[in-house]
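Hi L.,

You mentioned the student needs an example of a multi-chain input paired with its predicted structure. This one should do, with 1370 residues in total across all chains.
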Amino acid sequence: MKDDILLAVRNVSLSFGGVRAITDVSFDIRKGEIRAIIGPNGAGKTSMLNVINGFYHPQEGEILFHGRARRRMKPYEAASQGIARTFQNVALFKGMSTLDNILAGRTLKMHRGFFWQTLRHGPALAEEIEHRKFCEEIIDFLEIEHIRKAPVGSLPYGLQKRVELGRALAMEPTLLLLDEPMAGMNLEEKQDMSRFIIDVNQQYGTTIALIEHDIGVVMDLSDRIVVLEYGHKIADGVPDAVKNDQKVIDAYLGVAH
Amino acid sequence: MKLKRIVLACATTLSLVAPALAQESVFVPLFTYRTGPFAGSGTSIADGMHDYLSMLNERDGGIGGVKLAIEECETGYDTKKGLECYEAVKPKGPVMVNPWSTGITLPLIPKAAVDKIPILSMAYGLSASAMGETFPWVFNPPDTYWDGMSMIIKYIAAQEGGLEKLKGKKIGYLYLDAGYGKEPLPFLDQLSKTYGFEQKLYPVPAQEMQNQSAQWLNVRRDRPDYMIMYGWGAMQPTAVKEAAKTNYPMEKFISIWWPTEDDAKGAGKEAVGFKTLNWHAATGDFPVIADIRKHVVDKGKSLAAKDKIGTVLYNRGVYNSMLIAEGIRNAQKITGKKVVNGEDVRRGLESLNVDAARLKELGMEGFTGPIKLTCADHNGHRPTFVQRFDGEKYVKITDWIEPMTDKVMPLLEADAKAYAEKNAPWPKRTEVCDVKS
Amino acid sequence: MFYREVGQFKTTYAADQAIFPIRQDRIGLAIILFAAFVLIPLLGGEFLIASVMIPFLVLALAAIGLNVLIGYTGLISLGTAAFMGVGAYACYKLSTIFPQVNVLVWIVASGFVSSAVGVVFGLPSLRIKGFYLAIATLAAQFFLQWCFVRIGWLYNHNPSGAIEVPGHTLFGIPVTGPQATPITRYYVVLVIVVVMTWFASNLVHGRIGRSWMAVRDMDIAAQLMGIKLLPAKLLAFAVSSFYAGVAGALMVFMWLGAAEPEAFNINQSFILLFMVIIGGLGSLIGSFLGAALIHVLPIIVRFLPDALGVPVGAATVEHLTFVITGALILFFLVVEPHGLAQLWRIAKQKLRVWPFPY
Amino acid sequence: MDILYRIFIDPFVQMGGAPDLLVQTLWEGLVGGVLYALIALGFVLIFKASGVFNFAQGIMMVFAALTLVGLTEKGVPAPLALLLTIGVMYLLAVAVERFVLRPLVNQPDIMLFMATFGLTYVLIGVGELIFGGNPKKMPTDALFLPSGAIDLKILGGLVSLQKLDIAAAVIASVMVAGLAIFFQRTRIGRALRAVADDHQAALSVGISLNQIWIIVWFTAGVVALATGIMWGARSDVSFALQVISLKALPVLILGGFTSVPGAIVGGLIIGVGEKLGEFYWGPLIGGGIESWLAYAIALAFLLFRPQGLFGEKIIERI
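Structure written out for the whole complex:
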């Protein structure tokens, strides 16, 4: 069972100038599963993701990725180890086209140096085209061929979310963190997005951790769920177990403790 | 790129249209700076230059029966714009250029011989260009900045009772921290060693011209016996004000020839006693100025403000134009041509000899001293006098002071040689010489 | 009618990844290059070549450098002129210490010196950004300018305090100094600018360009793509300073012929900034358009009234140029924040659908 | 060793040896600092209320002073010219709001920053077009500004305080106090603070953003006028002053972009720092270091405390 765990969070606490965001939280993510993190607003979900991909450094506790512990890791190191991420408020490169955004996700996979880049012939061009092919596959997969050359700043919100997912997929991540991938979407868009998430998980075998508010979607999608409230973990388990957990019900219904 | 092409097309046509000048004229471009940070000085100079030449056109119909085609080009004291002006006037066959900025003069010096356009950089530019054998196309009469420094030192010595009395004195040097201000440094160093005075240096960065309190604090600490200034533009009024603030004795504050009346006036009564070098009068009481008033100003053909006519820099512009005009006249005399070109005027300037009699004819008797250039000496190293600010205007207070030519010449020779070496292959002089010295 | 991409199907990604995927654009580029290499030298007067084209190309090159920094990487610099100065002084020193090596080698080499200095002054960009960085680059501007004045070694202790360019030759043809004809100098500048523009275009369209733009648009997300901020920013500083340095060397050696430290003052930095803003941030074509407009504008303002027979004082012309430049900046920011380059794109778009816009 | 002595010991020996000069240097630094602080104050006012980094603040100072002097040169009595200049600054504020801020609202900050460059050039051009480019003298007497100096014989020497500089310090203090009262006690002032905190909140209490911008720019214009008068009286009024006014930028780094006390303290630190540096350490490397010392101080500061003296630590939110 041990080998099965891709990422483990061990007793992590995080605070900002005295304000505690996360208190002593532990959970793990298994290879190939879809893991959901839920909880009311301000529960520390996004902070948790930020800890995982190295934006925040917890004051206490540790993160084990592939079984190796690390305390202070830079975001780009997390990226090079295969952790990709989307954001709650889309964080696309607004001045660039869809294609360029997704190609930017390939940065780590491109190795031709400065010299070849200035020439853009021979190896550099070959590399560029090879990665273009890969990105076209993602574009096909996400059904965004028609906006390939459009600047992303002008796209509707739903499509931007999809491009952002595409950009994360371009990194061929082992662990994909999705921060509210369906926020602000209508039902149809949500269904599309759910389909993409499941396909990613099944076709590429990518492990996914996602934050989502739509409980219905979460229950359908995820293999296991961890529930946070005020920075504490209050429940962890398969959807059915979590659904019936009294603490979770209280938290969501706002019942006083 | 289309827009660019249209713009270029415009520029091309313009540059083709522009040289359509009357044949029977001598083209004299005037580089002026009525804008930019030094416009305060530049406007008066421009007016003086322009008005004298216009006066010749109005009164005499030009020079030797040929009208002068006068054209101003605005440089804003900016080297790049100055070069643009040069390129713009070049196709029209100018007989000489007056860059009126050391920065513009320097790049033009090597071009002069190639383009056959002489440069008249009157008491500015490259000092070494006084050496006519190395720089046949460049003229910088009547003095170099080194001459100026030597005359200031001589004046100070005269106050103290002789050059040997300078020993142990402290002389401060406040200068614009640019090529112009730094040029006299090696010479000052040499003089201080020769005469045993102590030099104190106060550089003023160009962008701090109006913020000199640190320099003047240093002056207060060092208490130099005399202060010498090589300033420019807004640096000068600020320095006079700071000197007043520091309670520096104004009578002992002597500047090179650039400050205007306005530069001193700013400090009010406290500026009385401030001194500058000059080689021409600073009033309007001369026949030549009267003629300018009559033929140009009163006809509304001058841009000059009435109260600026006859001021230091206006008169300097007049003096500059006098050299231009005499150079052209000389060229006509030597070549026998009426419409002269740049090569002719180069010879004309080289054999320039404005003696007392000629000055009288020009209506400049007492306005300035005579000047004579030769093939070897393109400067003249003329004596200057010290003028003192009396609260309203400058008053001449000394007789003519001769520069220490014996000390300046070796430096000029060494510099000219170094210039030619650094800019190798520097062309050997092949131009004809009409006046062996 | 003639500007259509209909029927031009791209069958390979290679074709689609080309920098000018539309055939007419490639033809247009060929025409421009033909005009630049053949028509202008053939038909243009000396004034056009020496006072319009050479300065325009040099300034455009510097503007490209600045655009790499501001337009592509989002780092504001107010010190471009100082980096041009570093290039110019480096080239002067190198060519006087090793006069036997061809000066063109040193013009390019001086870019590397400028690059190194640029990286040093780019170091604070990791901790500071936006306006703060702009102010930090002012430190570079004023400090370097002070060095040009103060360190006599830099200008070989010339009494004039300026750097002067002696004559150099290439294959026996004078390329610098008074003997070099404007046409020769123009070709040297043109070749360097064309090659460096091509390099820049390759860079900004590839991985490195994308990582710069990623840093510009959203630095946090860029880190998650595995882009290290400091190397990306420093590389932008290095490339930008390289372009500025070469432009500075060209400015002194091919255009001015001699320069005082004042040639690299803060106003020059501002003017380059205006070229980039008006031309279009993050656009190489825009750098050229902006440089053309800003450089040619005063010339037009100077000559137009004359040509129309309306005498306007030289001073007034200068003042008007200031007002018009300022107004143009405001106009472009308000009406078309992406500058002339965007107008260019819109024009192309219109042409694409002309004459049936629906 | 000698070099170390000259850097680390000798300047202090000099300070101790001539305390009157030290005091004088500090005083000159403080006065220069007050003027930097006033320009920085204009920046801060505008930045707080509209989020615009107003690069044109320096040129507004020159423009205001030039208008005043230009009018008096054309024969307008000084007090009337002063009123007219204030009027011109108001019109400028209205014009800026109408033609720059309103069309650019919600644009990225960088766009607005660059727009103020455009404004700078327009102001230089218009100013020179109307009044000419010559440096002009400030009519100090007509404006009831004192001249002369108070010479204090203390510390075994002489400390000379220019009355004009004292007046500048007094006027600056009065102006800062006035602004403080304006912000704390008046309805408009409170509204301005509300805008600074939250544009939406300000709108919801019924304040027109456009009016606020006009008021802020006008206030900054008046501050600029006062600064221009002071600096113009010290040297002449010319566009060369603009480069000096850039010194307010390092002041802002020290003080933070939004802090009025920061602007003042920062101004004084920069003013004193660069005078001490130039006076005691400048000669070691040839002098003239004043042109960049302020920026170097600011740069060093940035690396250790990027948020400024009084700014709050910025936590990056994702």
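You could point out the following to them. Chain A has a mean pLDDT of 85. The domain at 85-172 of chain A is CATH 3.40.50.300 (Rossmann fold).

Best wishes,
N.
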